[in-house]
């Protein structure tokens, strides 16, 4: 009887291992990284790559050529001191945010119609137009956004010593929305070393099959 029970236990363990292997991801983010769980609003989202190895890019990001200007290829370095980053760095910032680091904000700089198509989990939307006076943004609204980044208004002068680290992105290497947001922030005195630019944006994110979500409702 003991031998029979042992055989059942061993068989169950073997089946568990087989089924576990079947469930394991074959398309990882990195050799030792299958997924990253982050907070998106009040929900937890598991970011991983699409496991369908026949999957193709989202048609919204399949177009290779757009009229330039305005859709011109962006430089690899946007401004002195602003670090250009890629997907693994974005994931690291998202994970740090989800683990409680409230000094980081990941920002989707696109207009709401684009964001509604899907965004990076954990990102908040600050459209580039909302920081641009040339696009009609008023100083009071701009000031409120800067304060939300933990900048302090001291009698008309901005103190950015405790300002958050901002990770900015838009549609990709041909998109000017996050570059415009970054240039606006630099113009207001935001420290360049506190701004990170994900140049690849949604196009690279989608090409790599990484998880996207709908924006959080206000």
SSE run: HEEEHEHEHEEEHEH
- Class by SSE composition: alpha/beta
Measured between the Cα atoms of the first and last residue, the distance is: 62 Å
User: Helicity, in percent?
Assistant: 25-40%
Q: Provide the domain count.
A: 1
Sheet-strand content, in percent, reads: 15-25%
Report the sheet with the most strands, covering strand number, pairing sense and barrel closure: 5 strands, parallel
Q: What labels describe this entry?
A:
two-stranded antiparallel ribbon, disordered N terminus, alpha/beta, 218 residues, 9 strands, Oxidized Rhodanese, domain 1, five-stranded parallel beta sheet, 16% strand
Question: What is this structure, in a nutshell?
Answer:
This protein is an alpha/beta fold and 218 residues long. The chain is globular and about 60 Å long. Helix content is 30%, strand content 16%.
Write the layout of secondary structure elements.
Elements: H1 2-23, E1 36-40, E2 43-47, E3 83-85, H2 87-98, E4 104-108, H3 112-115, E5 124-125, H4 139-148, E6 152-154, E7 157-159, E8 165-169, H5 177-187, E9 195-198, H6 201-207
Task: Characterize the structure shown.
With 218 residues, the protein is α/β, with parallel strands linked by helices. It has one domain (30-207): Oxidized Rhodanese, domain 1. The chain has six helices and nine strands; from the N terminus they run αβββαβαβαβββαβα. It has helices at residues 2-23, 87-98, 112-115, 139-148, 177-187, 201-207, and strands spanning 36-40, 43-47, 83-85, 104-108, 124-125, 152-154, 157-159, 165-169, 195-198. The strands form three sheets. The protein has a five-stranded parallel sheet, with helices on both faces. It has a two-stranded antiparallel ribbon with strand order 1-2.
């Amino acid at each position: 009887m003991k031998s029979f029970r042992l055989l059942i236990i061993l068989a169950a363990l073997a089946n568990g291992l087989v089924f576990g292997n079947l469930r394991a991801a074959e398309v990882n983010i990195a050799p030792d990284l299958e997924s990253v769980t982050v907070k998106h609003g009040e929900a937890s989202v598991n970011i991983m790559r699409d496991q369908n190895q026949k999957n193709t890019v989202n048609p919204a990001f399949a177009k290779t050529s757009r009229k330039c200007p305005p859709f011109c290829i962006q430089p690899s370095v946007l401004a002195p001191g602003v670090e250009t980053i890629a997907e693994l760095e974005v994931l690291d910032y998202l994970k740090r945010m989800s683990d409680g680091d409230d000094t980081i904000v990941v920002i989707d700089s696109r207009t709401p119609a684009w964001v509604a198509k899907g965004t990076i989990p954990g990102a908040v939307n600050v459209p580039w137009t909302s920081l641009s006076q040339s696009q009609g943004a008023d100083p009071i609204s701009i000031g409120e956004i800067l304060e939300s980044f933990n900048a302090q208004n001291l009698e008309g002068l901005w103190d950015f010593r405790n300002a958050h680290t901002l990770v900015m992105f838009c549609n990709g290497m041909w998109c000017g929305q996050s570059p415009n947001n970054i240039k606006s922030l630099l113009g207001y005195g935001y420290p360049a070393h506190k701004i990170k630019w994900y140049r690849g944006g949604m196009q690279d994110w989608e090409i790599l099959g990484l998880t996207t979500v709908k924006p959080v409702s206000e």
